[in-house]
Structure formats: structure tokens, C-alpha cells
Amino acid sequence: MADLKIVIKNKSDEVQQFLIFNDVPAFSQNAGKAWTNVWGCSPGVGAESGNTTFGIRETFFAVCGMQKKPLATDLTVQTSDYEAVKLGTDKIKATMVAMKIEDKGAVFDKHATKESEKNGSFGINTSDYDMTEYKHAFCGLGMKSPVPEEEDVVPAAVWQAKPNQDYHITPKRVYYISTGKFHAGLIVDVAKLGQTATIDFTGRKETVATFCLNNQLSYEPVQYSFGAD
Q: Quick one: what percent of the chain has pLDDT higher than 90?
């Protein structure tokens, strides 16, 4: 069941496909550059009176994998493993998962998971491996698909995984909506997508964000509530 919902109404005179992205999480500086992935895509939403909903489950996953190319815009990321994690609180220690190279692939060592003291964060520890040979290994943040009825864990933000590192990742409750013909897992430059709507649940108790795309193809202000409109 979704913890948060984003309801989008299409008041434009064109059928639209809506996309959702996570804001890049806060992370330790040793991660270098983080890449944003398309997290979910709606089916076509009818002109003038159509609507669609993304459901956000605030459960988080560490993801990892091995690409054939360097991470870059327009590359589709294929994860090879994921592991459910807990964010640290005053009462619960954070999960620190362990990533290693096995059979030339990046995987998590289920027997080496530890704990971290970082509140609001989880961690990824990488093992000792040859960075020259495995320079395209990556890791990052994953979440359950926001598309109704889909259960896949989808990468939301990834970066090159360097050996012998402790990465600390703090997810944000900030999301972006745009339109276009894309697919989940594709790395994109959100700044180049044109019009985007920002949905910020940070510090809010409301669980539903509702807004519309008007006939000028701009987004009207987001309305927050405790129930669907």
C-alpha cells in the first residue's frame, strides 16, 4: 500500500505520458557524481479530462550492478542485485549493506550486512577489488515502482562504485514530474526535460499531492491533502 500519492490531471488538449523522478539523495562526497534514473512512467493519459496516480512506498533498497559502459545520460541501468535497507533513527540503527564482485558481477553479500549510526540514512560498503577491471560497477538507491500494480525495485539514483568505500545515502521526500517518451531505469538530465513539477513532502503530514498540466503545457500549483480530491 502506498504511503504517499501523486495525482496528476491532464487538462491539456494532447494525450500525455507522465514520468516521475526522485530528487537525488544526499550522499557522502566519496560517491562522486550521482545519476538520476526515470523511476516510473504512466500509460497515456487522455486529453482534457484524463488523470493518473503514482503511489510511493517509503521503503528503500540498496541497488548495484555492472554495466558495459560508463554511466551516462540516455543509458538504461540494469541492476543485478538489491537489498532492503532501514534508515537510521534515534531508536533504530541504519543498515550498512556489503557490495562485492562475484563471477564478474556486482552483488550484495547477505552475510556481511552491518549497521551504521547515521540517522535518516543507510549505507553501502564496497569490498576490495580491481577498479581498472571493474570500472563500470555501480551502486545506489532503489525504490519499489510507483506505478500501480508493479512490484519491481527500480533504481532511482546511481553512481560508480569504487572499491573500499563506505557510502552513506539519505533519501529525500522530493519528486519531479515531467512528460515524454521514456522508460524506467533510463538515466536522464532532469534540467533538460523542459517543464517539470516539483512535489515536496519534506516535513509534511499530508499524504496526497494533486495538480494539473494545463492547456499552456505548464503545471499549476500543487495542492496537498490527506485524501484524494
A: 86
* Closest to 179 in 3D by CA, of 72, 20, 73, 69: 20
pLDDT, mean over the chain: 93
pLDDT confidence band for 30 (50 / 70 / 90): confident
User: What distance in Å separates the CA atoms of residue 49 and residue 65, rounded to the nearest whole number?
Assistant: 41
Measured distance CA(209)–CA(103) in Å, rounded: 44
> Which residue is associated with the grid cell 502506498?
2
- In this predicted model, what pLDDT tens digit does every residue of 125-171 receive, in sequence order? 999 999 999 999 999 999 999 998 889 999 999 999 999 999 999 99
Q: What is the DSSP letter of 24?
A: P
Beta strands in the chain (DSSP E): 4-10, 18-22, 26-27, 35-37, 40-41, 50-56, 60-66, 81-85, 94-102, 105-108, 114-116, 122-126, 137-144, 153-160, 166-170, 174-179, 187-188, 197-200, 208-213, 223-225
Tell me the three cell numbers of residue 147.
506505478
Phi, psi of 128 (to 5 degrees): -85, 115
Which pTM does this prediction carry?
A: 0.93
Q: Give which of 220, 218, 223 is closest to 204, Cα–Cα.
A: 223
| SS3 assignment, position 29 | helix
Which residues face 178 on adjacent strands?
19
